[in-house]
Specification:
Two copies of one chain form a homodimer. The first copy, chain A, is of the alpha/beta class and about 600 residues long. Chain A has 17 helices and 24 strands. In chain A, a hairpin with a 2-residue loop joins strand 11 and strand 12. Chains A, B: It comes from Paractinoplanes toevensis.
Amino acid sequence: MSSLRRAMATVCVSGALDEKIAAAAAAGFDGIELFENDLLVSPWSPAEVRARCADLGLTIDLYQPFRDFEGVKPEQLAANLARAEHKFDVMAALGTDLVLVCSSVSPATIDDDDLAAEQLALLAERAQARGMRIAYEALAWGRNVSTWDHSWRIVQRAGHPALGLCLDSFHVLSREVSPDGISGITDGKVFFLQLADAPRLGMDVLQWSRHHRLFPGQGDFDLTGFVRRVLDTGYAGPLSLEVFNDVFRQADPVRTAVDAMRSLIALEDGIGGRPLPAAPALSVHAFTEFAVDGRSGPALQDALRGLGFAHTGQHRSKPVQLWEQGACRVVLNSAVVRPQAAGTAALSAFALTSADPDKSRARAEALLAPELPRARGPHEADLTAIAAPDGTSIFLSRDDNDWRADFLPTGPVLTDGAGLTRTDHLGLAQPFDHFDEAGLFYHSVLGLTHSTSGEFAAPLGLMRSRAFTTPDRGIRLALTVALLRRGDWAPAVADPQHVAFATDDIFATAAAIDRLGGTTLQVSNNYYDDLIARFALPGNEVDRLRRHGILYDRDPDGGELLHMYTPVYGGRVFFEILQRRGGHDGFGELNAPVRMAAHRHLRLSAARELPR
Amino acid sequence: MSSLRRAMATVCVSGALDEKIAAAAAAGFDGIELFENDLLVSPWSPAEVRARCADLGLTIDLYQPFRDFEGVKPEQLAANLARAEHKFDVMAALGTDLVLVCSSVSPATIDDDDLAAEQLALLAERAQARGMRIAYEALAWGRNVSTWDHSWRIVQRAGHPALGLCLDSFHVLSREVSPDGISGITDGKVFFLQLADAPRLGMDVLQWSRHHRLFPGQGDFDLTGFVRRVLDTGYAGPLSLEVFNDVFRQADPVRTAVDAMRSLIALEDGIGGRPLPAAPALSVHAFTEFAVDGRSGPALQDALRGLGFAHTGQHRSKPVQLWEQGACRVVLNSAVVRPQAAGTAALSAFALTSADPDKSRARAEALLAPELPRARGPHEADLTAIAAPDGTSIFLSRDDNDWRADFLPTGPVLTDGAGLTRTDHLGLAQPFDHFDEAGLFYHSVLGLTHSTSGEFAAPLGLMRSRAFTTPDRGIRLALTVALLRRGDWAPAVADPQHVAFATDDIFATAAAIDRLGGTTLQVSNNYYDDLIARFALPGNEVDRLRRHGILYDRDPDGGELLHMYTPVYGGRVFFEILQRRGGHDGFGELNAPVRMAAHRHLRLSAARELPR
């Protein structure tokens, strides 16, 4: 398969037309679909837009949309053709030869395929006279024509060389009609291909389309199968994204365009186009690094000591400490330059082992996640580092231990601190604008698999969650985001972050933490009273949970999750300790509001005790 | 009709349980519905919650929800009854005797009304033994029971004195089944009444219910008719709000509870319960006041002068100027104490004439919008002032002119400045958390009527709009809000505000403004080229519009709107000039993105010319 050109509709991103075009060019697109409204509000003339695109190496692949053309009475037809001639004038000035005509939504449309075909043929004749072509698209909510196969019958009936189809994955895959027959479209009659993914939502298809589209790989549609079928027809035009999304429409267009391009690169790899370096297997969560300062550093040290960690190493050249317990490693870094308030801490990096770090880096680079430059002393480990969408650095090393040579030992690793064995997962609240971008990043760049998704009511508003893991669950990441960007009253508390450590016996761990003087989060008594009713657990078992503030969940197969939390340190960071039994694969999402309420209670209590 | 008690479900508002309860009490509610999850995550025991509510004068009217009880096999029934006994324990500690049992959503539910009735009767028997009662509710998405009439048949079949209905306006009015028959429910069998409004949305009813409920009067449901029917049955329990709303769930609970209470007060008036002072007729938009400082003041003066306004008066005791043209009045106030950045301006107040300002004030006060205290010099007009949800002061006076005595004349009113005749409307971008609150405020407190609503795509994201007017259109307010709270990349520019002035001849006005050296907003040429195609307007007419940057819209009845704008002054404020022809009743919403793009172009151009 030869390489396909890549395009993006201007409607995908926020801003004025010049900002949209600049963003598309910066992300490496070959062309754009120009959305008419973006042109109408622009101070640039069509000729200026054409020149600007040419300067940036972008073609204008499609002008869109032209609405409510076909299935009209003769007098309306004349008016519609006059409208079309005006669009052709604009297209001539833009230097584009293809216009999208979407199936009519007007209640007045006459339901007669012959009439529609005849009128579209007339339009195509006019277009052809000016060296232009018509791409006819069945809107999923079209008045009479709402499925791809119906639009194809009409195009065949019209039989005009300047009339073909525009296939939009959303309009096709949001309907019940199978896309299988697409492969049978003949004579190069697919003139244009628009791509959008979407979550499966039970809602009016127009609203679904206008608000909730996503880039390929971010939703639930089978884009790979869809594109393969279209390519079977001999289609050689661009892969063009047309994504209406409320969040993308108000986010930084440069970031969004990169996210868009990443989705196409991953999709092309999936369909066997330009292949990417395969994602090397990731296996172990090697360490987690926190950026700290003179106030938050000691707070985290105390917390770790209380959980049974020991300070085991000091970095050779930087003010960086290593803390360990079993295979749990935490790095406290006082040298990270990040814009954060004094006294706060932040999860600044985490390290994973890769079967082939060079290949991981090459894949990341091909997916527009380039290696981060790092200051490194002589003899220090050469870790590959890339940036996640939330700004966290991700280190990739071949060996779980090669980076440890950077640290001078300061004490032995405790194996019997509190029985913590390894890092189970990270919980990362994502910046509002970048949740779907983060999901695509972890899936495409790191090759992690989407495991669970959900929505839950937290004390300060609704939350969404989405988890990514390796097949063997050696690495797990749980992403969350507020459903609405939080305002003054319910701030998102700087996107809290946490590390969850595994234990094989949470009760023994809890007892050890008690002995060590560590602090865990107190949980409402009401929660435990209800547990008895919810799961029909014996009262004395619940009392054991209650004593240590251990939360409980059980899946339909009987797998159990027992987990407990610490308070929040440095304004943003906390720890979780958990035990999975019987292959429980979740994250205790139902218990998240309990944890959040307990954290809020601590914060409000502290605030009330502060002198006014 | 005797007064009904007023209650609010804790799920209506944000925060921890103590914050929710305090907010309900502060807003004057008599009771709460305690949502189980709010209790489970609370550090307070049920007895402590009971005591806290008693301290604040709140009763706990309902504990909810108890799920998936009925239509199960015998072994499951035993477990469900055990679960119920646990809830009864909690209820006893809370001191409440009523629990909501919602119709089962479990796929395993047996579809057998006799079985459901029999099992609910068993549950009611258990409840009765403890002096408690069961309110059975048909969830709109219940597995077998999803309509009120079905739940009523089951309750009748069960025939147990401790089993009655819970009627929820959302579950009833979101379904096709008519609520008319509700009046026929006998024997006081409506045990509880839950109220929620909602916009009519084409989406899955569960999602609709969980995210988009509104307080009565904010949506499209006929709550008045619904409540009347329930009262016909002899229901004498509380009117209780149960509103799941994504925005309310993350907003200030104290504000939200006041909004909730206002909705109930207005509803009770509507059903002929506790009557309010009738809303006196409002007629004229008397003046608009801007808070300015030493930098924004002169900028607004220049702008007004360029539009043909004259400085006609100086306030007797304050640094306040009056500017006039025809019946258009603008007040520039340098003495307003508002937290705003230096150099900025803000629409701080507007004045309307009321047929009875005292009654307007009394109605506002009854609707929890108390009079604002004002500093007033001797001999100065005693204007009633109340605060709108966005903080704007609204002055109400009997006479269009009595407040003018506060100003010493500084020059004559120009009648021929630029032909502006009167204030047509205000355009007020609302703070994100308070859009629905504002709608209810203008409707209930001021008695304005909702005219149009819409949604449109702006350059920096989607927007919603909602307009309120007097019957004769003497006063119009157009509210807008971003669909998502804007973030760093696309800030809401401090919620822009504008005044639209009417003219009888916009071309003459535009020519006069040119002569006066005034500045109006340049509009994209592309917009005009498209107008020709869109409305089949003659080219020379469009060129007249183009020359002056006049935007155009036409309604299906041929009514026309011609309107033009100024640049933004003081970071936030601009003016519009418009001419309505043939009874056009809109606000040119389709043109709003054109205006926004032009404003953005000016801002970006200015930023690019700034030295770095």
